[in-house]
Amino acid sequence: MKALTTTPPSTNNLKPLIRSPAVPTRPNFIRVYPTRVSIQCAYRSESMNFPNGVGSSRSDWQSSCAILASKVVSQEQPTDKAGGADHVAAVNGHKTAIDLNLVPIEKVSEENDGGCGGNSNNNNKPVSKPLTITDLSPAPMHGSQLRVAYQGVPGAYSEAAAGKAYPNCEAIPCDQFEVAFQAVELWIADRAVLPIENSLGGSIHRNYDLLLRHRLHIVGEVQLPVHHCLLALPGVRKEYLTRVISHPQALAQCELTLTKLGLNVAREAVDDTAGAAEYVAAHNLRDTAAIASARAADLYGMNILADGIQDDSSNVTRFVMLAREPIIPRTDRPFKTSIVFAHDKGTSVLFKVLSAFAFRNISLTKIESRPHRNRPIRLVDDANVGTAKHFEYMFYVDFEASMADVRAQNALAEVQEFTSFLRVLGSYPMDMTPWCPSRGD
Ligand SMILES: O=C(O)C(=O)C[C@]1(C(=O)O)C=C[C@@H](O)C=C1
Asked: Where is the ACT domain (predicted)?
């Protein structure tokens, strides 16, 4: 299957594959999805006197949201506690008076705060129930197979991640990460599955930036063991090679091994691993190898010259699943929550923010900083001549607690006091699959 691209679809394409700006028309049905409002409402449920926490069914929850949305607006509009709506608009580029990215959370009585030393399962309920798709996100509205957008072509690791996250889904290849976001926003796909970090290569920065730019919600995560192979056309030997092409992450994950194999050849980055294999095959390149999966070798008729060439056998990529609507956060199984914030002026702000989690014994699993693109530099100087420059950042934090957990709600209420911008990207079940360093392809 050809990936959705940024160029217009050819007329003889049976299946409309995703192309960035040229995504045709919206589907006929109109549906208002709750986006940010829903998240806020769900998180506010205790402080808004919903004795059972978030609604027990999706419709309860959504109607609670409808009621609470107006309260959120009326309560938050006059106050400018965390930098003000204008500021948030500046950060996010949305010209709305009330930007619901700003999480208006009231602190809940510390009695109910789960105390320090507890884990995220503060109800002491068993955590062994296996996850199902319905736990991760609402079912697709069209009643058929779940359509999952990923970046790359068939044989890419992202396709394998889509299959792990949603077995039996219809995986939809997209040529760019951005296109996968748009596919979900435009109802062409129900979910997107995107790599966010790798145990060797680190963060996939592009996707951090896109998470902020788009309004999708993280509804799950999967960790995929990534087992790379060196692929070449049949009959090609290592000695013939003058270059190796692959996704930049895959090149980074195999750098030492390539050198150990004596491959002091040019490395070239392409959009995805399987796309590299497809390219070598399509152009009959006998001096070029691709780093990709064994499945890509099968699909594109390539030979495996070397197997397991990642620099560490336990190479893992973490993917996040994105949807138009958030899931209802729960406390009966381990959840993770991802937030992004920009800190306000003041000293030790980052320390104070992180303390809000530490004091509640909430573990952080990841912190990432990215340039604050709307305000990249702050000039600081006593004489105000602008000689000292501070870089400004957006901080992305993942922590191990559900937004239905009062400890997390209170931690965020505190965080909000020190930040000029705060958005919950999603609260979702942690991937608890037992570690099995088997082939990831
Ligand atoms: O190129 C692919 O196969 C991908 O799915 C992309 C990607 C990435 O972006 O990190 C995913 C997993 C591996 O870490 C290498 C590449």
From this structure: 338-429
Residue among 247, 294, 31, 287 at smallest CA distance from 150: 247
The closest-lying atom of ligand 1 relative to the alpha carbon of residue 246 is: 1
Q: How far is CA 208 from the centre of its chain?
A: 7
Q: Which residues are catalytic?
A: 317, 319
ipTM of this complex prediction, to 2 decimal places: 0.94
Beta carbon of 157 within 6 Å of any ligand 1 atom: yes
Q: Which strands sit side by side in the sheet containing 393-399, from one edge to the other?
A: 364-371, 393-399, 335-343, 419-429
Distance from the alpha carbon of residue 384 to the mean position of ligand 1, in angstroms: 46
Q: Quick check: do 228-309 and 328-432 share a fold?
A: no
pLDDT at 89 over 50: no
- 161 pocket-lining for ligand 1 (C-beta < 6 Å): no
Q: From the CA of 274, how far away is ligand 1's center (Å)?
A: 9
Atom of ligand 1 nearest to the CA of 315: 14
The band of 372, judged by pLDDT with boundaries at 50, 70 and 90, is confident
Give tens-digit pLDDT for 255-288: 999 999 999 899 999 999 999 999 999 999 999 9
pLDDT of the residue at 373: 74
Atom number of ligand 1 nearest to Cα 293: 3
Q: Is the CB of 156 under 6 A from ligand 1?
A: yes
Task: Indicate the residue type of 65.
Answer: C
Q: How far apart are the first and last CA of the chain?
A: 18
Contacts of 339 by beta carbon, 8 Å cutoff, 6+ apart: 396, 397, 399, 412, 415, 422, 423, 424, 425
Q: pLDDT for 122-151, tens place per residue? A: 333 333 444 444 555 555 555 578 999 999
Q: Where are the domains of the chain?
A: 144-225+311-325, 228-309, 328-432
- Which residue, judged by its Cα, is nearest atom 12 of ligand 1? 157
Query: What is the assigned CATH class of domain 144-225+311-325?
Result: alpha beta
CATH of 328-432, one of 3.90.76.10, 3.40.50.2300, 1.10.40.30, 3.30.70.260: 3.30.70.260
